[in-house]
Amino acid sequence: MSSEDEILDELRRVRKLLELLAEPAIAQRDNKLRGELLKIVGSSSKKQQSVFLMNGSRTQAQIVAETSVGKGHLSTMVGQLETAKLLVDDKKHPKLAIAIPPNFFENNADAE
C-alpha cells in the first residue's frame, strides 16, 4: 500500500468519525425533510433499500434491478420525493438532497 493510499484510508476514517459526531446536528437541521422521507418511503424494505442507492450514479432501472422494487412503485416514489424537494438533479438518476445514516429506517420505525 502506498503512502497516498494510507492517507486516503485515514481521511476516510476521519470523515466517518466526523459524520458520526455531526449526525445529531444534521438530524435536527433536516428533521422536517426526514419526516417527509419516512412518510413517502414507508415500511417497505425494498423501497428503503432503493433510497440508499439514490446517490445520482444509478438510473431508476438500475435501482429496480438491484432491489427488486416494482418499477411503478419506484417511479411513483421518485416523483413524490421530487415534489417534496428531497431530490437534487433529475429523476432519471435520483439523488437524495439530504444525508441519512445507514440505520435511518431502523431507528425511525416507530415514527411511522
Task: Give the tags.
112 residues, two-stranded antiparallel ribbon, globular, mainly alpha
Would you write up a description of this structure?
The chain has 112 residues and is mainly α. The protein has one domain. The protein is 63% helix and 4% strand. It contains six helices and two strands; from the N terminus they run H-H-H-H-H-E-E-H. It has helices spanning 3-29, 31-41, 45-52, 60-67, 71-83, 104-107, and strands spanning 87-88, 95-96. The longest helix has 27 residues, at 3-29. The radius of gyration is 16 Å and the shape is globular. The model has no long low-confidence stretch (mean pLDDT 89).
Distance between the termini: 46 Å
Number of helices: 6
User: How would you characterize the largest beta sheet?
Assistant: 2 strands, antiparallel
Oligomerization category of the chains in this entry: single chain
Roughly what is the average pLDDT, rounded to an integer?
89
The geometry reads as: globular
Strand order of the largest sheet: 1-2
What structural category do the secondary elements indicate?
A: mainly alpha
Number of strands: 2
β-strand amount: under 5%
Which consecutive residue ranges, at least 5 long each, have pLDDT under 50? none
- Give the SSE order as H and E letters: HHHHHEEH
Radius of gyration: 16 Å
Integer tally of domains: 1
- Assign a percent range to the helix content: 55-70%
Topology of this protein?
Elements: H1 3-29, H2 31-41, H3 45-52, H4 60-67, H5 71-83, E1 87-88, E2 95-96, H6 104-107
Helix pairs in contact: 3-4
